[in-house]
Amino acid sequence: MEDRRIKKTKQAIQISFAKLLSEKSMDNITVKSLCEAADINKSTFYLHYKDIYDCADHLRDTIVDEFSKVIAPYSFEDIIKDFAVILENIMNMFDRNKDLYMPFLKSPSLAFSSCKMKQLMIEKILERADIKDRNSGIYRCTVSFVISGIISLLEQHEFAEIDRQTISTLAYKVQNGFVC
């Protein structure tokens, strides 16, 4: 278990990183400006991260880990069957952490990292699939389509737009087809 002080320091760094990311491009964030925002020394930053990009990767991994916790109890078939519940849980998780997660998702300078995040989430689901499904191109494409759709929904829309009715309608379309 990680020491509480270390956890608190990393959290301060991540929150400051997200705040800076909401204000400027990743290329314009320096270790110095991040340390000033987090009220830490550069040496403290370097105890936890190699550089700004490592810090961004850790934030991405945090999002993937939290997303994985939401979907862990479900097979992909159950994700589709209970899509409204899963999507609402994911929305709640992102809403609770929106100040931290949304700057990451909406940053054009982190598009590669966002793609890597989608890939990691897709792999987490495929790991738990039967070997037959994992080897099926259509199954892999379907998992990619659904997970990419969820992440793109979060990237493109404000949470106020995605109410229970929207979630219910999206779930119906995912479960029954989009031509309805």
Offer a concise description of the structure.
The chain is mostly helical and 180 residues long.
Detailed description of the structure:
This protein is mainly alpha-helical. The chain has a domain at 53-176. Helix content is 77%, strand content 0%. Helix 1 crosses helix 7, helix 4 (52-71) packs parallel to helix 8 (111-127) and helix 6 packs across helix 11. The model has no long low-confidence stretch (mean pLDDT 90).
How many β-strand runs? 0
Gap from first CA to last CA? 50 Å
Q: Average pLDDT value?
A: 90
Task: Give the SSE string.
Answer: HHHHHHHHHHH
Measured by DSSP, the beta-strand proportion falls in under 5%
Q: Number of helix segments?
A: 11
The oligomeric state is: single chain
Q: Determine the structural class based on helices, strands and strand pairing.
A: mainly alpha
The percent of residues in helical segments reads over 70%
Cα shape: elongated
Largest sheet: none
User: How large is the radius of gyration?
Assistant: 18 Å
* Uncertain stretches: none
